[in-house]
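Usage

Read records sequentially. Each one opens with the input sequence:
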Amino acid sequence: MSTAELGLVGDIGATNTRLALVDSDGAVDRIRVFATDDYPGLGEAIAAYLAAEAPARKPAKAVMAVAAPVTGDEVTMTNNPWTFSGQGLRQRFGFERVRVINDFVGNALAVPQFGKGDVVQIGGGQAAAGAPIGVIGPGTGLGVSALVRSDGDDIPIHSEGGHVTMAAADAREAAVLELMRRRFDHVSAERFLSGPGLINIYNALCELSGALAAPFSAAQITDIQIGEEYPHAREATEMFCAMLGTVAGNLALTLGARGGIYIAGGIVPRLGAVFERSEFRSRFESKGRMRTYVATIPTYVIMHASPALVGAARLLKRM
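and closes with the structure output:
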């Protein structure tokens, strides 16, 4: 691998920062995960990575996929305190070119690269060739993107769709939403469909029932054994899956995403059979007169460990 062929890609989230090298064939290698809280900024994390993995070889190009809106050169992360600029990274590390994209743009670009073992289908439906694809994923926040086909090329859509206004689909959800409206000026989908959102749902259910909420983390709320002992934790997980179905179905209708809806993020892949048995798919299809239309659209859970890096590497080859 020559110096000119070396590229750097990153997946910059609220909790973890993943960095990797990319060769001329687009292969992602030497992935390392850094705790975001351990570094004052992205530049320091990159410096630590390059010192360990490429001390004698300077990458020529870099693509950073970030969990934040990308509207200009300077980027402020949504759920962590980092602020940085692409131009600043280029100057500091001597990159020839730097591209900063939303992390879910990276996830969307990765979809055509997936192999059979990288996704698990939930429910029925069959992808229509060349049709738009939607990507949505709960993690520390809620990411949304899309991929549309144009003149033989895949065009990713930058989106902040995780911040759309959440709607209730039944009386129980409406009661939870009403509690949330008392606490937030805007009750977005991300307030429910994220790690903090799971905690919000659980706490609200406990309050509605007059029960004392345990100080559970999101991972504990979705734990099967805890759910057996704490019914509100189990109900919170079930409501989370159903509400994700509602929002994913809305995305499918909005995009005309007959190419499929892909579920990314760190939460759903860990749910396994709980998610498969949940109301996600039935809620996804519950669109009244559009039920038949939505029922033909397949839904998949992305099991690949680092899809945003795969998508960033794909974009790196275009630079």
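Summary fields computed downstream for this record:
- The first helix runs from residue 42 to 53.
- The longest strand covers residues 142-150.
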